[in-house]
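During the no-cost extension, the postdoctoral fellow (Dr. R.K.) reprocessed legacy sequence entries with the updated structure-token encoder. One reprocessed record is reproduced below for audit purposes.
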Amino acid sequence: MGKASSIEWTHHTFNPWWGCTKISPGCKNCYAETFSRRVGQDIWGRRSGRRFFGDQHWSEPVRWNAEATRSRVRRRVFCASMADVFEDRLDIRPVRERLWRLIAETPALDWLLLTKRPDNFSRFAPWHDEWPRNVWAGVTAENQVWADRRIPLLLEVPAIVRFVSCEPLLGRLDLRKWLRGIPRIDWVIAGGESGHRARPMNPEWARDLRDQCANAAVPFHFKQWGHWRPEEEAVPGTRKRVSLEDSKGRVITLVRMGKHAAGRDLDGKIWDEFPLSQRGRLAAR
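Re-encoded structure tokens follow.
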């Protein structure tokens, strides 16, 4: 976390605070909760407090902005990998207001605000009808139920980039009606779940999302297989396996590999497509 983030689709990560409350199936094995407990922080759930930070922490994005300005290369900042910016709590409201001021002070950074609570966009975002050009709005859609609930709310936001993170991908998703027309989804991220309790992702779900994006000329980013990936001949036979079925009833075997060993290639290719915001237009790179 911080500068040079290990998260594949961002340059930096900034957390205005740590802590959250689980609200949907994608939260079940939350990596942020696991990490916070590992470092001795009890900050998950409605009754727990949140972890806040001092001025030195808040000065980091200002330095990143200066570096981006000097290099004339914009940098993406994933905001709140350890929280949800749009959670409704009294103790985080003044901190969130400080975040809005920080975003205004760092115009060379593209701030990626990803949430599971898009119903709070209009309540807590201060921009209303005209969002800053350096703020991207995103929602998590782990299955079709939550895509149907969250994406229409996302498309109400006048952000220069609207994106959907389908991670952990827990079921087949049909995004086609939101990938065309105006407004539409501008970027799709997909990936499997990581961690020892990870739920396997059917490879067909990821391929289907990739193809939907390709057909609509929408950038697609495959972040990771997660803890499980399709079986290959070179995988040791001692590793744990699970069997799934594709849409035609054929058996697919997945092997428990761990995130780093499983990798992030999909059908032999790394899918690192990103939206580019130039005069309001988007293109893949």
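The chain has one domain: 12-229. The first strand starts at residue 12 and ends at 14. The remaining legacy entries will be reprocessed before the final report is submitted.
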